[in-house]
Write a structure and sequence with these properties.
- There is one protein chain.
- The protein has 18 helices and no strands.
- It is globular.
- The chain has 411 residues and is mostly helical.
- The chain has one domain (34-405): MFS general substrate transporter like domains (Growth Hormone, Chain: A), CATH 1.20.1250.20.
Length: 411
Amino acid sequence: MDQEVDPALAHTDVVAPVPRDVALEPLLAKEPAWGAVAAMMLGVTALLTAEFLPSGLLTPMARDLGVSPGLAGQAVTTTSLAGLVGALFTPTLTRNFNRKPVLLSFAVLLAISNLLVALAPNITFLLTARIVLGLALGGFWAMAAATTIRLVPTPLVPRALSIVMSGVPAAMIIAVPLGSYLGEVMSWRAVFLLATAFAGLVFVVQALVLPRLAPRGEAGLGTLIEILSRPGIGAGILAATLVFTGHFAYFGYIRPFLENVTGLSAAGVAATLLAFGVANYLGSFVSGLLAERKLKLTLIVMPLAISLVGLLLAAYGKDVVPALVLVALWGFAFSGVPVATTTWITRMVPDETESGTGMTVASIFLGITTGAAGGGLVLDLMGAPAVFVAGAIPLLLAVLLIAAKVRTRAP
């Protein structure tokens, strides 16, 4: 049954724009809606599972479609490019709509995309289907934090955000190691059919438990420019782009590295990627506490650690034990990135959370696009170890930028 958070608006899916002075008021729930928070976490898990699946299924996808692994990896690039568009424009295009049906529409697009990918006869069809996923992914991420903070009282917001963000490591465990294993046991197409069913489950759960929420803030394109002009925001947005450029240059091509450089079998790749996912999940609890208490330190340390892991993998990844340990450390380190980035933007732009989050998510998708495209090019031209050397460069640039320019408190 729907929880009526905005009862005066529950009769309609379209509502009048909220004036700015009203948008600044804390429209938070008096009682925590933990079921709705869990439904948001489930949405994160399902969407990111679909996003990450090609990383664990890259080899069989490329083989079946008759393309190189680098070209197959552009499934990630296409998704992230569409996600950038979705993140930037969803808050504006849906600014007059009740948030629940908008969120439900993303689950529908997710199911459609996964089904089309499972049926794809060629790489062009597959990449087109991934555009649908990207639009849903970008739109959902743009609204996720802003929706979550309205589901619980103010003191419980950090806990609610950490629950929603736990969907990130959960997706990594499901998509990469489990997806890789199932892709060998069944087929990569069957894995995407399972992902389609997962999307259907998300739709049902969210339809049952999400409350109806009126839009907040102005959410116009002019709002994005105004937010970007605030002190420290531009540097933080650029830093997020650089961090995700480096990370996804690594992550999109980890399977070819483990197969061709470390020499692991499909089962060995699945086990190593499981170590990444488990370490990422465990690290999310530690990084959540660290981000709450030492946000700037978290923003600096995590990309620095990821860059060092990449360089060490390039040097020592041919041996199984070092590769396993380094991949696990990488998973642990990355756990802090989405938590810290989300915490940062909600602190810096409390009055326009949807637009601020949308802009941050767009920058992240730009980074993913650049990293996946550049990583695929480097992989095809220079080999897997070179990907990890090249990916360290934007990560280290991000560390320097955060240390010098990024603020963690709104003026």
